Amino acid sequence: MPRSKRSKLVSLTKVSKKTKEHKNAMMTELQANAEKWRYCWLFEVGSMRNSHLKTVRKLWKDTARMFFGRGAVMAKALGTSVAEEHRLGLSKLATQIKGQVGLFFTDTEPQEVIEWFADFQQPDFARAGNRATRTVTLPEGPVLRHHSDPPEPFPHNEEPQLRKLGLTTSMVKGVPTLTAPHKLCEKGKVLTSEQAQLLKLTGLKMVTFRVGLIARWDSTTGEVVQIEGGGIPVDEKAAEGSDDEDDAEMSE
User: Fold this and answer.
1) How far is CA 194 from the centre of its chain?
2) Domain chopping of the chain, boundaries
3) How far is CA 81 from CA 22, 46, 75, 88, 193, in A?
4) Which CDD domains match (predicted)?
5) Total-model pTM
6) C-alpha–C-alpha distance, residues 34 and 26, integer Å
7) Looking at the chain, which terminus has fewer C-beta neighbours within 10 angstroms, N or C?
8) Among candidates 166, 209, 162, which has minimal Cα distance to 185?
């Protein structure tokens, strides 16, 4: 007799147990890294993109370990009070873990870390909810895609999608064409989903992924130093969330 394909009930106690074990494993891993490396940096991300965060992790794979997400787990692993802290001074870092932040463990000298992250910035496409960083007006004539140099016109089969997103186009010699200039977005205003999609389709990048260093813990002294001007402005963090299922759990 073939096995039934109907949904089966799963005991919630089993799910909770597995989740608890997973959290404990992550805490153990974090604490092991706190014992291994000299420095632990608290950081946040502007215009979060998992692909860029993975690039950072790959470039530092031999000289650092990075954790991102699950702030409550990270804070508990470090210890949020003097009595609970895993190592001297870590509670001063743990109490600053709020929102979408991460931990970066390394032995690399602080100035080198600061300079590296200040230099690592990756342009990317804006999302709905971001504020436009500049005014973009599409000129009269063929609608162009800026993914290549020189830009190329959209193919005829994409004209219905352009019209659906708000462009008033017509077909001229098989090319989607604007009969008048079209203001796609205005600087300082929040982007709609249609505007964000049009910016992506036309290849116009408007945000920049970057890592902002907030504070640094030194294992040799137990001191925590705040990084002046190292955080990410609120408007760069707005409307940015996970773009990959990996962020449902703490990534490392």
Assistant:
1) 21
2) 24-125+207-236, 130-206
3) 23, 29, 10, 10, 43
4) Ribosomal_P0_like
5) 0.81
6) 12
7) N
8) 166
CB-based contacts of 148, cutoff 8 Å, min separation 6: none
Query: Would you call 97 exposed, middle or buried from its count of C-beta atoms within 10 A (0-12, 13-18, 19+)?
Result: buried
Distance from C-alpha of 165 to C-alpha of 28, rounded to nearest angstrom: 49
The DSSP code sequence of 25-36 is: HHHHHHHHHHHH
Per-residue pLDDT of 109-159, as tens digits, reads 999 999 999 999 999 999 999 999 999 999 999 999 998 889 999 999 999
For residue 251, what pLDDT is reported? Answer: 56
> What is the per-residue pLDDT for 195?
97
CATH superfamily of 24-125+207-236: Ribosomal protein L10, N-terminal RNA-binding domain (3.30.70.1730)
Tell me which residues of the chain have a pLDDT lower than 70: 1-18, 235-252
Half-sphere exposure at residue 6, Cβ-oriented, CA atoms within 13 angstroms: 3
Per the listing, tokens 């799910």 go with 15
State in words which class domain 130-206 has. alpha beta
In sequence order, which ranges of 107-210 are alpha helices (DSSP H)? Answer: 110-119, 159-164, 193-202
d(CA 10, CA 6): 13
Identity of the residue numbered 250 = M
